[in-house]
From TrEMBL:
Protein name per its UniProtKB record: Ribose 1,5-bisphosphate phosphokinase PhnN
EC number of this enzyme: 2.7.4.23
GO molecular function (one): ribose 1,5-bisphosphate phosphokinase activity
Domain Guanylate kinase/L-type calcium channel beta subunit: 2-175
Source organism per UniProt: Roseovarius lutimaris
KW ATP-binding (keyword) present: yes
Positions contributing to ATP binding: G10, P11, S12, G13, V14, G15, K16, D17
HAMAP family in the record: PhnN
Catalysed reaction, written as an equation: alpha-D-ribose 1,5-bisphosphate + ATP = 5-phospho-alpha-D-ribose 1-diphosphate + ADP
One BP term from GO: 5-phosphoribose 1-diphosphate biosynthetic process
């Protein structure tokens, strides 16, 4: 059976990248899709392929992306190389826009949507602490926090207000019910 594409979604600052990194470190069954983004390669945060807008559009036209979208004045994509990993039966996580979920459900044979949530004050404090965006950009990201999931999207909602490990454990239990999560790290 093919692997599942695990879409991790939620407002800016909710912890999508932190949760995905922790999940990948914790459980070898979970791969991580490296996104293509028109953001300077040294911006920090997640590992991604930084490209110019012209290069992005050329790749998009050439069909090398499984999914692509625009948000925050940037272009984002999940490369179609994930197909080979999924075909080999491996689950792969990707950080997606909530607006692209209907397309993602159509694109991938098996998909799970994990919608992370956290309260507004927590999001704001985390974005300031992350320091990747300007104050104006942070304000715009927070304004988008209330964006609701498109109708027809079936998501599993997981809170990330508290300890990251609790959120990670809840996701693993949902993804691999009845199975012991593989733990290659140390418990805290
Ligand atoms: N459970 C958590 N507790 C404390 N800080 C967190 C938690 N989850 C994420 N963070 C921090 O919040 C900031 C935003 O997290 P990030 O993973 O970049 O979110 P997103 O990708 O959803 O924007 C980062 O600085 C990260 O270290
Ligand atoms: O339509 P939305 O669900 O609001 O998502 C819009 C974009 O925001 C996030 O990007 P990015 O990872 O650059 O930002 P973030 O880390 O601040 O969430 C997410 O991955 C999408 O690409």
């Amino acid at each position: 059976m093919s692997g599942r594409f695990i879409a991790i979604v939620g407002p800016s600052g909710v912890g999508k990248d932190s949760v995905m990194q922790a999940l990948a470190a914790r459980d070898p069954r979970l791969g991580l899709a490296r996104r293509v983004i028109t953001r300077p390669g040294d911006a920090g945060g997640e590992e991604f392929d930084g490209v110019t807008e012209a290069a992005f559009e050329a790749q998009e036209t050439a069909g090398v992306f499984a999914l692509s979208w625009r948000a925050h004045g940037l272009c984002y994509a999940i490369p179609a190389t994930v197909d080979a990993v999924l075909a080999a039966g491996r689950d792969v996580m990707g950080n997606l826009s909530r607006s692209v979920l209907i397309a993602a459900q159509a694109r991938f044979a098996r998909i799970e949507v994990i919608a992370l949530s956290a309260d507004h004050a927590t999001l704001a404090a985390r974005l300031v602490r992350r320091g990747r965006e300007t104050d104006a950009e942070i304000t715009r990201r927070l304004e988008r926090a209330t964006f609701t999931l498109p109708q027809g999207v079936k998501a599993h909602v997981v809170e990330n207000n508290g300890v990251l490990d609790d959120c990670v454990a809840a996701i693993l239990t949902h993804l691999y019910p009845g199975a012991m999560a593989c733990n290659t790290g140390t418990d805290k």
